[in-house]
Amino acid sequence: MKVREMMKIPYKVDRDLSLDDAAVKISNEGSDCILFMNGDKLRGIVTERDILKNYGKKEKISEIMSKNVITIDAEAELKDALELMRENRIKRLPVEHEGKILGVISITDLISEMGEVEGEFFFN
Question: What is the pLDDT of residues 82-96, one digit of tens each?
Answer without folding.
Answer: 999 999 999 999 999
